[in-house]
Specification:
Keywords: Membrane, Transmembrane, Transmembrane helix. The structure is a single chain. Helices cover about 50% and strands about 15% of the residues. Strand 2 and strand 3 form a beta hairpin. It has 5 helices and 3 strands, in the order αααβββαα. Strands 1-2-3 form a 3-stranded antiparallel beta sheet. The protein is an alpha+beta fold. About 30% of the residues are buried. The protein has one domain: Four Helix Bundle (Hemerythrin (Met), subunit A).
Length: about 120
C-alpha cells in the first residue's frame, strides 16, 4: 500500500477495528482522546510475533496520526513516500516525526507505550 493511501485510510481503519476489539462501542464516532488509555493497554497486552508486526505497526501508526491531527493541531503528509506528522512546538516551529517508525518501536516493545508517547510528544 502506498503511503498516500495508508494516510487516507488511517481513520477508516480505526473506525472499523477499534469496535471489533472492544475499545469503542460500535456506531460511536471515533474520538481518540477518549480511548488512548484503553487502546494503549490493549496494545501493551498483545504478544506481537514477527508475522503480525506489520498489522500492529499499521494500527498503532494510524492511531498516532489521527490523534495528533485531531487533538494537537498536527498536519499529516507524505514526504519521500513516508508518512510524516508536523506538530506545532513553539511559535512558528514545527516538530516533525514519522508515526509509523514510532509505531514500530511500540509494537516491537522497544520504545515504551503508546499513551506515554502521545502525552509527551506534544507537551
Amino acid at each position: 500500500m502506498s503511503a498516500s493511501r495508508a494516510l487516507e485510510e488511517a481513520r477508516p481503519i480505526l473506525e472499523d477495528l477499534l469496535p471489533q476489539i472492544g475499545i469503542i462501542p460500535s456506531g460511536v464516532p471515533l474520538d481518540t482522546s477518549t480511548c488512548i488509555s484503553s487502546f494503549s493497554k490493549w496494545v501493551s497486552g498483545q504478544q506481537v510475533g514477527q508475522e503480525d508486526i506489520a498489522f500492529f505497526v499499521g494500527l498503532i501508526g494510524a492511531f498516532i496520526v489521527v490523534y495528533l491531527v485531531d487533538h494537537k493541531d498536527a498536519k499529516a503528509y507524505v514526504k519521500e513516500n513516508r508518512i510524516c506528522v508536523a506538530i506545532p512546538f513553539q511559535q512558528g516551529i514545527m516538530r516533525e516525526l514519522e508515526p509509523y517508525a514510532v509505531a514500530h518501536g511500540i509494537a516491537s516493545g522497544s520504545d515504551g507505550d503508546l499513551e506515554s508517547f502521545l502525552k509527551n510528544v506534544a507537551a
